[in-house]
């Protein structure tokens, strides 16, 4: 017995209500989880979501974490609209971090002003190239980008591991797999004394503006959207599916690469194995929760940053397992996808013959009623 | 020479066994038209559930495997509800399952990090294990490897020769037609998704209870994704899937032995080989669009809501 029937038109209200419903459900499950760990849910929510924001340092950390998440998600969103699923942003971020670090390591000691911009450009190129490989594999060999982007992430992780263990390992670093600490010319300037927030957040702000303009005015954005939602129509209108694939993957690689550069030239300050707490994966959720909209992504980026910071705070002051962050991320995406069903479908009403008296339905919905053959 | 080869081949079968289970499960799921990209997550949930159950029963293998299978199937249920009952995007839902599985298994696993199990001894099959080369490779393995042979036989036979197999394929080829002649398409797809989950769970259980045998966070290390790629490589044929799984098992093991032999290649580069090989085989198969079109279940990835 199917429970759902299609709506005549996708519900705009549900489209934006779905993330809120998902957040509420995530918090409810979170409350049960906390209770099962013998932690008062109210206390846990306070520690997770309120306490970190009572200090200026908390706000600084929030923006510092939201910034790469938003930047990567902005780059992913146009591709997701076109149903090009780049799920390897984590690898593109790592390649960006690697290329940026290469510049910093070879320019070590130089106080020249070009070092930092060169790092950002190298990071952008590294990420873009790591995104271009699956684009090439897709357009020339028809290979699924979901699988290739992910495999390239594993390869990037191993490459990073080799770099920090052998050629780029800090000789004075007591054998830890990490590079030298970068000098000041290789780091973004701090915005306030004593806080880690730095000027890299302006890159994210500019990116949001660019993507906003791109989505709301650009012909290319329309092309990318049509290419995904109606490939036949797109072909008819003369749009190239190949161009869509290239554009989606290179742009998302580029933003992820810049985010990687922002980490090594920012809070991390060197190339290490643990430079990203999974930002590339979390950004996928950020893009969806933000409805693939440049401004929605800003909000969902802050939400995801709160989940990260809350997870850290919960670990420190409540001794909760650190893996709780990943659990919340998964739950959020699950609930979002579930709530999203109600954008295009609605619950089937129990007594269809009362339809007309009870609800003012549009006439085109009724002929869709199912010929009941089997249950 | 042959003395060196036998341990490599024996190891190949062990390394391939998780891929065999996870790959066969995903193959059956995809045969009904559903792509579940959550194999990695279901394997991890199966791995931690099996490990916890085995630790709790002082190393009982059967309990571990069953716990892994149940946990894997349970993990596939939210994916089924999202994609089959709520018409959600299959790629996104599978990805959500993987992220969730990673988080959940790490969460539960934190209290199991310090435990270890003793693993299981191989069982030599009388007579057969005495055959030169083939004997020690195929007939002196642990019981789960034998179980993987049986599972392969059952899946291949069911898909090719039985009425159930015919129905599964019909649902994947044309859900509308299957629905109109009275088959409960959604229920059949639920069954296939749960089967895929149970198989992924067993694959994870093999890793944590027998192969490693330890719990390590994110211990599947991409094997779930490789299993998904193998299904494409196999063009949805069970026998080719076995071939692919053993090929990958071989690459994994060669990499370990190369390190042992002191090959002067950084270990990280050798570890990257299976992932590189996955890309290569995907390219080799996918470039032949006709071959793919011919074998691809026609409704793959498309949601079907009866009456929709």
Brief synopsis:
The complex is a heterodimer of chains A (375) and B (308). Chain A has 375 residues and is mainly α. Chain A has 14 helices and two strands.
Blueprint of the fold:
The complex is a heterodimer of chains A (375) and B (308).
Chain A: E1 4-6, H1 12-36, H2 41-50, H3 56-81, H4 89-106, H5 115-141, H6 145-165, H7 200-217, H8 219-229, H9 231-236, H10 241-264, H11 279-289, H12 294-318, H13 324-344, E2 345-347, H14 355-358
Antiparallel strand pairs in A: 1-2
Helix pairs in contact in A: 1-2, 1-13, 2-12, 3-7, 3-8, 3-10, 3-11, 3-12, 4-5, 4-6, 4-10, 4-11, 5-6, 5-10, 7-8, 8-10, 11-12, 11-13, 12-13
Chain B: H1 2-31, H2 39-56, H3 61-85, H4 90-109, E1 123-124, H5 134-138, E2 140-141, H6 143-161, H7 163-173, H8 175-180, H9 185-211, H10 223-233, H11 238-260, H12 267-271, H13 273-286, H14 289-295
Antiparallel strand pairs in B: 1-2
How would you sum up this structure, described in words?
The complex is a heterodimer of chains A (375) and B (308). Chain A is mostly helical. Helices cover 66% and strands 2% of the residues of chain A. Chain A has helices at residues 12-36, 41-50, 56-81, 89-106, 115-141, 145-165, 200-217, 219-229, 231-236, 241-264, 279-289, 294-318, 324-344, 355-358; strands at residues 4-6, 345-347. Chain A has a two-stranded antiparallel sheet. In chain A, helix 11 (279-289) runs parallel beside helix 13. Mean pLDDT of chain A is 87; it is low at 354-375. Chain B is mostly helical and 308 residues long. Chain B starts with a helix and ends in a 13-residue tail after the last helix. In chain B, helix 1 runs antiparallel to helix 11 (238-260) and helix 6 packs across helix 7 (163-173). At the A-B interface, strand 1, helix 5, helix 6, helix 11 and helix 13 of A face helix 3, helix 4, helix 10, helix 12 and helix 13 of B.
